[in-house]
Amino acid sequence: MTLELRPVRPDFVTEVDGVDLSRPIDNTTKSAIWDAIDRYSVLVFHDQRLNDAQLRDFAAGFGPLEIGRSAARPGRRRLEIPQIGDISNLNEDHQVRDLHDRRRLDSLGNRLWHTDASYMPVPVVLGLLHAVTIPPPSPFGNGETEFADMRAAYDALPDPTKAALDDLVIEHDVFWSRGQIGFTEFPPGEREQYPPSPQRLVRLHPGSKRKALYLSAHASHVVGWPVADGRLLLVDLNTHATQPQFVYSHTWRVGDLVIWDNRCTMHRGRPHAEDQARDLRRATTLDTGSTLEQAA
C-alpha cells in the first residue's frame, strides 16, 4: 500500500492516509512510516478503529513496548493489556474520576510540557495515542495535545549557545515534575522504584541526523551546576522551545491515531471537560540505550 502524506509544515507534522492500522502492515509500509517519522516527527492518522490488542500489535512492530508507571502499580486496571496506557479520566469501573481522585491528580502532570519517561535510565522512542472517546468542548480547552519541534528549536539557537549546551547533562525526575503542580502523594516504594536519571540535553536524532533539545517537565537541574542556575537555564530553554512557531496543536476526533517521536519533540495535554468521559489509549516503544551513550 502507498502512504499519502499531507504535511502541516515542511518538516514538522504530517497527516497520513492510505493505510488501515487495525490490519497487519508489510515491511514496505512500516519502512515508509519510519521515513515519515524521521522527517516530520509527528504523524496523524484519521478514521482508525483499533482495539487494544490491535494497537499493541501495531506499536510492537516499531520496538519493544513500555509498561508505564501507572500500569506497573498493583491492583485493578480498567484496561487489560499492561502495554496499553490508560490516558483517560475514567476509573476501573469506567466512571469519570472525582476531581480529587489521586490518580487523576497525578495524571495532570501531563499538562506540563514533557517528554515521556525521560526520568527512566533508558527512555522511550515513539508514543502512539488513539482516541476512543472525546468529550464536548469546555470553557478552558478541548483536550488538545500540543507538540513542540525540538529540532527546529535547537536550530534557532545562536551558534555560541549551541556549543555551550551540546555537552550538558540534565537530571530528570518524575517527582520533580509532579511537585510543580503540588502533587506529592505517591504509593509507598514508588520513589525508590523510579530514581532520577541523567540525560543529555542535546541529542543527535539517528534518523534525520539533526540535533534536538531534549527537554521535559521532568528535567530538574543541570548536573554539576548550582541547582538554581540550571533551573533558570531550563526555564529559558523551555520558553524558547515552546514559542508558537515551533508548536502544533492537535484537536482530537474519535478514531485519530497520532504517532510522535519523543527523541525530538515535547508535548502536553490541554484542559477538557472533566465531567465527561475522555478516553485515549497509548502505546510507547522503548529505546535501546541511555542518552549518555549517544553522541550529540
Quick overview of this protein structure:
This protein is an alpha+beta fold and 296 residues long. Helices cover 23% and strands 25% of the residues.
Write a structural description:
The protein has 296 residues and is α+β, with helices and mostly antiparallel strands. It has helices spanning 27-40, 52-60, 102-107, 150-155, 159-165, 174-179, 190-193, 227-241; strands spanning 4-9, 12-17, 42-45, 85-88, 124-133, 145-149, 169-172, 197-200, 202-204, 211-213, 219-222, 247-250, 257-261, 265-269, 279-286. It has a 7-stranded mixed β-sheet with strand order 1-2-3-13-5-15-4, covered by helices on one side. The protein has a 3-stranded antiparallel β-sheet with strand order 12-6-14. The protein is globular and about 50 Å long. The model has no long low-confidence stretch (mean pLDDT 95).
Write the layout of secondary structure elements.
Elements: E1 4-9, E2 12-17, H1 27-40, E3 42-45, H2 52-60, E4 85-88, H3 102-107, E5 124-133, E6 145-149, H4 150-155, H5 159-165, E7 169-172, H6 174-179, H7 190-193, E8 197-200, E9 202-204, E10 211-213, E11 219-222, H8 227-241, E12 247-250, E13 257-261, E14 265-269, E15 279-286
Parallel strand pairs: 2-3
Antiparallel strand pairs: 1-2, 3-13, 4-15, 5-13, 5-15, 6-12, 6-14, 7-8, 7-11, 9-10
